[in-house]
Amino acid sequence: MKPDWVLGVEVAYTFTQNYLILVANSYPKLLSILSNICQFPHIYTTPEVSKALGQIEEYSTKFRSLSTNFLKIYLSSSMALQAASLLPSAFSIQKEGKTGASVKDSSLFGVSLADHPKTDFSSFALKSKREFGPRKSSAVVRAQAVVTAPAINSDTAQGKKTLRKGTAVITGASSGLGLAAAKALAETGKWHVIMACRDFLKAEKAAKSAGIAKESYTIMHLDLASLDSVRQFVDNFKQSGRPLDVLVCNAAVYQPTAKQPSFTADGFELSVGTNHLGHFLLSRLLLDDMNQSDYPSKRLIIVGSITGNTNTLAGNVPPKANLGDLRGLAGGLNELNSSAMIDGGDFDGAKAYKDSKVCNMLTMQEFHRRYHEDTGITFASLYPGCIATTGLFREHIPLFRLLFPPFQKYITKGFVSEEEAGKRLAQVVSDPSLTKSGVYWSWNKASASFGNQLSPEASDAEKARKIWELSEKLVGLA
Fold first, then answer.
1. What confidence score (pLDDT) does residue 451 get?
2. Where, subcellularly, is it found (predicted)?
3. CA-CA distance, 325 to 347, in Å (whole number)?
4. Which helix (H) or strand (E) holds 379?
5. pLDDT of the residue at 308
6. Are 119 and 168 part of one and the same domain?
7. Half-sphere exposure in the Cβ direction for 457 (13 Å, CA)
8. What share of the chain is helix, strand, coil (3-state, %, to 5)?
9. In a domain, 48, yes or no
10. Strands 152-155, 160-163: parallel, antiparallel or unpaired by DSSP?
C-alpha cells in the first residue's frame, strides 16, 4: 500500500496534469520532474526534492494558482520527511546551462521563497535546515544505475541455460497499438516493457486496466514533441542500468481536420516533429545501447502506415503522401523560413501525418543500410492492419468515427482489433522467423505475416539519405 505522502504527490500531480499538458511544449522539464517524483517516490530524499523544487521555481509563474497544493502537501507531510530521512540518496541533480523560461519573481507555486529563506524540519526527525533560494539553471533528475542481468541465466537445478527477459521500449504505450503490444509481450513472461509515455498517470491506469503484471512494466516519461524530453528520457534510461534489446517507435500524432499547423517545443510542425524527428533522435541516441546489448535478437521497429504507401488503395486516398523535393524539411518546417509541410506546400493535417509515415519507413531502411551489417540489429517497419477503433482517430469528425469501423470491418475487410494488432507488433518484436532486416511487414486475411512492397517514394534510397542528413541537422546531431 502506498504511504499517504505518495498519494498526496499523486493527487497534486493529477490536479496539475491537464494544464501541464497544454503548456508542456514550452515547459517539458517541469512535467518530467513532477512525473519522476510520482514514478520514484520511495527513493527520493528531502534534499533532492528541495533542489528539484528550487529548479521548478523557474517555471512557477504559469502554474502558481494550480500548483500551490503540491508544495503544501509535500512540506506538511511528516510521513514524507520521516521516510526520506531513512532512505539513501539515489538521485543526482545535474545542472544545464539552458532554460526555456524566464523568472519574473521568486515565488514557487504561489509561496514566496524570499519570505521563508530557511525551513526547519527538526520536528520531522531531520535535524538540519534546508536552504531555499532562486536557481539560475534547470535540473534533470536521473535515477542511479541498477545491476544489469546477463543475457543468459544459469538454471542450477537442471544445469541448463535460460534466456533472460528481454527489455523492450515502446513509445506511446498508454493506449491503442502500443498498449496492446505491451500487454502481448508482458503476457509471454519473457519481456519487461518500458512504457515511454507523455502522461504517467494515464499510462499507469491503462496498464492496470489491461491487466499487465506490475513486475512486467516500467513507465518512463517521454514527450516526443520536445527534443529536450527525448534527451532526458535517454539519460534516465541509461542511468537505470537496464539493457536495451528492442526499441519500438509507435507513438504518433494525427490531426486530420487541422486547418492550421501546430508546432512542437522546438518549432517543428507537430505531426512530422513528433512522429519522425522525435523518433529519429530517440533511435539515434539509443542505438549504441542496443548495440551493446547481449540479447541474441536486437531489433529497432518503426511503425509505418498503409496511408503513406501510395501503391495501395488506401495510400491513394487524397491527400496523398508526397515529400516533393524536401524543401519544407530543409527549411525547418516552422512556417517562418519555410512551409510547415515537407514538400513546401500548403498545410494539410491529414497529409502531414501521411508524410511523416513515409519518413518513418524511409528512416527504417536507412538505418538498415547504415548499421545492420556492422551491428546485427534487425531494422523493420510494419503495418499491423486498420485499427479503426483506435484513439488515433479521435480528432476526426464524429460521422467518420461512427462509420469508419463498420466500413473497414464489412466492406474492405481490413479491420483488426487492437488486441490482434498488438499481437502482430509483438510478433515483429520477438518472433524468431521475423529477423530479416529492412523489411516492411504486413499480414494477409489469414493473419500470416509477409514482407510487403513499398511504393517508389517510400523506398527511394536517395531521398532516405537526404531525409537522414536534414533530420540530423534539425535535431542537433550534425
1. 83
2. Plastid, Chloroplast
3. 16
4. strand 378-382
5. 82
6. no
7. 23
8. 50, 15, 35
9. yes
10. antiparallel
Distance from chain centroid for Cα 35: 13
Are the CB atoms for 326 and 372 separated by under 8 Å?
A: no
Whether residues 139 and 158 fall in one domain:
no
Site of grid cell 503476457: 187
Please report the DSSP string for 404-430 in residue order. HHHIIIIII--B--HHHHHHHHHHHHH
Please say if 254 is a catalytic residue: no
Q: Check if the beta carbon of residue 392 is closer than 8 Å to that of residue 254.
A: yes
Query: What pLDDT is attached to residue 222?
Result: 97
Question: Based on the structure, what is the number of domains in the chain?
Answer: 2
Q: Angle 422-424-429 (CA atoms, 0-180°, nearest 5)?
A: 95
pLDDT of residue 384: 87
Tell me the C-alpha distance between 161 and 151, whole Å.
10
159 and 39 assigned to the same domain: no
Q: How many whole angstroms separate alpha carbon 407 and alpha carbon 161?
A: 50
Question: Which of the residues in the chain have pLDDT under 50?
Answer: 18-26, 62, 65, 67-69, 71-72, 74-150, 152, 154-159, 388, 392-393, 397, 400-413
By the 10 Å C-beta count (0-12 exposed, 13-18 middle, 19+ buried), 88 is classed as exposed
In terms of Cβ atoms closer than 10 Å to its own Cβ (0-12, 13-18, 19+), residue 476 is: exposed
Question: Are 91 and 142 spatial neighbours (Cβ–Cβ below 8 Å)?
Answer: yes
Name the residue range of residue 16's domain.
4-143
Looking at the structure, do residues 232 and 371 belong to the same domain, yes or no? yes
**Cell numbers 522525435 label which residue?**
278
pLDDT at 386: 66
CA distance 54 to 375: 43
159: its cell numbers = 544445469
Give the active site residue among 74, 353, 383, 440.
353
* Predicted pLDDT at 46: 58
pLDDT at residue number 128? 33
**Within a domain: residue 446?**
yes
